[in-house]
Design a protein that fits this description.
The chain is of the alpha/beta class. Strands 1, 2, 3, 4, 5, 7, 10, 11 and 13 form a nine-stranded mixed sheet that branches. The longest helix is centred in the first third of the chain and has 16 residues.
């Protein structure tokens, strides 16, 4: 940027425009550039003759002292930070600048600080001024993690914060739950605030309040949202994924510089250049990873597919769209794929195998990778595992957690989405003593704590996010076993960013350990265990990342029909699944650990 130019130092800036509704909360002290007159231009000494001298030798009127630039700055940490840089930069160009006068647009008294300003910095630029955006803060409505609401209209948000809508049953909540608008301190303030009530100091206080006020709702800056709350979509827009344009004129606050429209062009351009220089980059779109439970290619699943004409996309007919909408989808493939091994005749067998065409269904559903670290990948020995690996490779589906020798079994699968690299590691904690891989032996990756620590550290060298996926636990219970929790904690201590698991065939608890989420089991997804609701029902975990940070865990409940087809459950039925998880997770999300 040029060191001088634009508005001449000797030309005063004249402020124009309509007065703002504001009040002054700071003092102004002028920093003036003083023009010193030359000694030759001073008055004649007493007694010196003046008659007959040319007119030019008489003293001229002194040049007017240039008025310092006046800056009106709205209160808040971010405007103050930008104002400090602005004053330093303008001063470096040779402008005299008064200390910014702090104003707040909420006061009803009009003051001249904005009317007579040359420059405005804040969230409410004067009408008719030329504005230059510096940063945009997107706000998101958030509710308790357990409140079964996912979407809302902006018009309804206005009515909620205005006190017109008072119960969540109006939005499909299966029970009556009073709505309680809440406020969280933020700079800038949220665009919608309750008409009364205490302002909570931070997100921690909000999460604690949700425990006692389960119907609470507040607006948080998107950057402040984390896994402990549920962020709502507004008019179909997901601010955390940011795949569409924000809802117009609603949940944003834009920090802008503004100058009067008749400000000198050179000065206006300097302000525009400053705004461009310090303009915050918009956040990258979020990344969504869908995790599904046990997909069992065999037994009645395979028989049902063949009975319906051999359409291997059929198991995923009702869920493919939602899985494909994620950026990345991972499943636990619990069985063997082979065109050489015939399926057993016994419909109750525990040896699972399906045609290699099952990959058609996986691809149709948008499944990008599968864990093979389970107690059925070796049902048909080395030949069955080799066929499975080859067929997955041919289909372009990544795999992890099993291999033809130990190094391959321990090797992570890497996925890069919008510049963020995810590493998935699979570990068998159920059958590793029987099926665990060795130096020259095919099998699953054993859930050995030493391997876990080494593998996470090695994966971290290439990945931004490391996710171990365990096959563990006791079957047919929602509560994780002590040894599940011990393994999960070891993984967190080794540096895992989130820990996942499966095998129990039921949904299981959630836990936070050292701030890291642990999701113990999503239950079944494609399986023939039709003999109980618990084994027919499961969840899709939808993990939302902003960069490498996990900011949301969203749940979609499913129920298996006709031995092989999961369908998405409506809220009234899904709530039974969520209650099962919640009952096993009394400390989630506000406390560390699984509390008992």
């Amino acid at each position: 940027m040029a060191t001088k130019g634009g508005v001449e130092l000797g030309s005063p800036m004249v402020a124009r425009g309509k007065p703002r509704v504001a009040f002054c909360i700071g003092l102004t002290c002028a920093v003036l550039l003083v023009c010193w007159g030359s000694a030759a231009c001073g008055p004649a000494r007493t007694g010196e003759p003046t008659a007959g001298l040319p007119l030019a030798v008489f003293p001229q009127p002194p040049a007017p002292t240039p008025r310092p630039l006046r800056v009106a700055c709205e209160g808040g940490r971010e405007p103050a930070r930008i104002a400090q840089r602005l004053v330093a930069e303008l001063s470096g160009m040779g402008h005299a600048v008064e200390n910014p006068c702090a104003v707040a647009s909420a006061d009803p008294r009009p003051l001249p600080e904005i009317e007579h300003a040359d420059l405005y910095l804040g969230y409410h630029p004067p009408a008719g001024w030329t504005t230059f955006p510096v940063s945009v803060t997107h706000f998101v409505p958030v509710v308790s993690f357990w409140l079964p609401i996912t979407d809302i209209r902006y018009a309804d948000l206005q009515r909620i914060f205005g006190g017109e809508i008072t119960d969540w049953s109006a939005f499909g909540c299966p029970w009556e739950e009073p709505i309680v608008p809440l406020a969280v301190a933020h700079d800038p303030p949220a665009p919608l605030l309750p008409v009364s009530g205490t302002v909570l100091p931070d997100v921690d206080a909000l999460v604690a309040t949700f425990r006692d006020v389960p119907g609470g709702i507040a607006l948080l800056a998107a950057s402040a949202v984390d896994v402990r709350v549920r962020a709502l979509r507004v008019d179909g827009h997901d601010a955390l994924l940011a795949r569409e344009s924000p809802v117009k004129g609603s949940l944003t606050r834009t920090l802008s510089l503004a100058v009067p429209r008749d400000a000198p062009p050179e000065f206006r351009e300097r302000v525009a250049a400053f705004a461009r220089k310090y303009r915050a980059s918009p956040p990258e779109p979020g990344i969504e990873i869908a995790i599904v439970g046990d997909v069992v290619p065999g037994r009645m699943v395979e028989r049902s597919i063949r009975a319906y004409g051999g359409d291997y996309t059929r198991p995923f007919a009702y869920v493919a769209d939602t899985l494909r909408s994620a950026d990345l989808t991972i499943a636990n493939l619990e069985g063997v794929l082979s065109d050489e091994i015939p399926p057993p005749e016994d419909p109750t067998t525990f040896f699972f195998v399906a045609s290699g065409r099952f990959c058609e269904g996986l691809r149709y559903a948008g499944i990008d990778g599968v864990s093979l670290a389970n107690n059925h990948s070796m049902n048909f020995g080395a030949a069955g595992l080799a066929d499975t690996l080859a067929l997955l490779d041919q289909a372009g589906i990544a795999h992890f957690g099993a291999g033809m020798e130990l190094a391959e079994a321990r090797r992570p699968a890497f996925f890069t989405v919008r510049g963020v690299t995810f590493a998935f590691l699979g570990y068998d904690a159920v059958s590793h003593e029987l099926y665990g891989a060795g130096e020259q032996r095919p099998g699953t990756a054993p859930a050995d704590p030493t391997f876990i620590v080494e593998d996470i550290a090695r994966a971290r060298e290439q990945a931004d996010v490391v996710i171990p996926y365990f096959h563990w636990g006791w079957e047919y219970t929602a509560e994780p076993s002590p040894w599940q929790r011990e393994l999960a904690h070891r993984a967190v201590e080794a540096g895992a960013d989130v820990v996942l698991g499966n095998h129990p065939h039921w949904v299981q608890a959630f836990e936070r350990y050292q701030g890291v989420p642990i999701l113990y089991s999503p239950g079944n997804f494609v399986f023939d265990q039709m003999w109980s609701l618990e084994t027919r029902r499961g969840v899709i975990w939808r993990l939302v990342f902003r960069g490498k940070h996990l900011v949301q865990i969203r749940l979609q409940a499913v129920q298996i029909e006709d031995y092989h087809q999961p369908r998405l459950l409506p809220p009234s039925e899904a709530e039974e699944v969520y209650r099962m998880i919640r009952a096993a997770s009394p400390g989630w999300p506000e406390e560390e650990g699984v509390q008992r």
